[in-house]
Here is the input.
Amino acid sequence: MAEAVRKSYWRPDDKTLREMAQRWRDLKAKGAQSGEGETAAVLMILIVRNPRRS
Here is the structure.
């Protein structure tokens, strides 16, 4: 999904971006690989745009 966003094939709404960012954080905390190259960069951008709320 992040790759589709990166390539501008898909433009999800803000809620979906927040959910993607949260899911990525959760998976990474459990030891999942963060992705490769540009796709990982897109995931990091999602995190920056949608920081975890307390």
Remarks:
- The helical segments are 2-6, 14-29, 37-49.
- The first helix runs from residue 2 to 6.
- The chain has a mean pLDDT of 76.
